[in-house]
Write a structure and sequence with these properties.
heterodimer; A: 223 residues; 5-stranded antiparallel sheet; 4 helices; 30% helix; 32% strand; B: 279 residues; Glutamine Phosphoribosylpyrophosphate, subunit 1, domain 1; 7 helices
Amino acid sequence: MTKQQANWSPYDNNGGSCVAIAGADYCVIAADTRMSTGYSILTREYSKICKLAEKSVMASSGFQADVKALQKHLAARHLIYQHQHNKHMSCPAMAQLLSNTLYYKRFFPYYAFNVLGGLDSEGKGCVYTYDAVGSYERVGYSAQGSGSTLIMPFLDNQLKSPSPLLLPAQDAVTPLSELEAVDLIKTVFASATERDIYTGDKLEIVVLNADGIRREYMELRKD
Amino acid sequence: MFRNQYDTDVTTWSPAGRLFQVEYAMEAVKQGSAAIGLRSKTHVVLACVNKANSELSSHQKKIFKVDDHIGVAIAGLTADGRVLSRYMRSECINYSFTYESPLPVGRLVVQLADKAQVCTQRSWKRPYGVGLLVAGLDESGAHLYYNCPSGNYFEYQAFAIGSRSQAAKTYLERRFANFADSSRDDLIKDALIAVRETLQGETLKSSICTVAVVGVGEAFHVLDQDTVQQLIDAFEIVGEPEGPAAEPEPEPEPDAAAEEGTTADQGAAPDQGVAPMDI
């Protein structure tokens, strides 16, 4: 007698891709706006990006119900922090909080693949990338979601130094200008849309810098 | 109210039907430094007097932001006030999380009152020794409530609690009919004048008072010291030796009055009327 398998899953994958790139004094966070289930499209206009604090923006793909719950949970924790400390959480603090929150549900995880972007305490861009249970790392750029396998190698090609042995060790920040980074994001999503069926419709780009927050949209292929 | 055989714990009634411990708790509120609240149709203003224990120490925080639409000013045991503020913040966050909308002020004060009532009916607890002026805005308009240690709460157009609050209440009683249609600035001006009434001679300076506002399109926030000082100067509200009836006419002598006030009161010993617990 073979082991019984569940015929109902508490999870679903709503697809989509998220990318973030950190610069010297800015951070770009982007995600497509398509929400799918199976081979169907639920909506073409769903935002996967959430502003958690003054200088922290999170983009998450995966199961959007879990993503929504996670965003609400973090927003509530941020309010408590503000009451207690009289200031907004810094991006590194939010990064640690997100990690702890994810691990808290280690045995019934949030099906959320997150990428957190923002400005650190010195005003430099920072990107943190996560797995579903909270393992995280500060990096210069990252991609998550259904198109991540298509996007990440391209970002490595463009942004990663050729060999860590030749050049002195780079810090977590990539040497791009803000406009170049936004342009790279648009290129990368256009390509991912071509081959990933779950990525498309519209691209939402959020740029965080010393002047504040800016939002931009770009149309993507709708097929 | 003197020590008697029915006041040892809160679960003992007196033959006259009084719970002395609860009444003593309300005494603690009267001993704290003053807090004042007033509301119009669109705004609510809270103001309080900050009395530091000595020149060396800072003053205690008496106004707390509870949520974007609710704030509270306390008088009495500030530690109890802090704990209750934390409870209120937590309730607001939980309500927003569940219903994605702000907690109506009336609900919050009922929860607070019920929490206070519990402490009047358990032998192992004591009543909270703090009075709260809850200022908030919700769908039904602007509200000001007073929650007392007994578990009672009342809604007010304007109110004052703490030491020498009677002076402020007298001023407010004369003027409250105009408050409903007051502008935001007039409301703040009236609050500052009411605070001045409780100071009885001392100069009104931004360093000894705190003002907070919440209104339509304006989240609850405490005004910073510079803004308050500018408002005091603009309204030319200065300390006057007499004068519950003093109206702030534009007079060209704010400097002279300010100097007199400063020398008289700055080095004064901590006020006899202020309880050691509340500063």
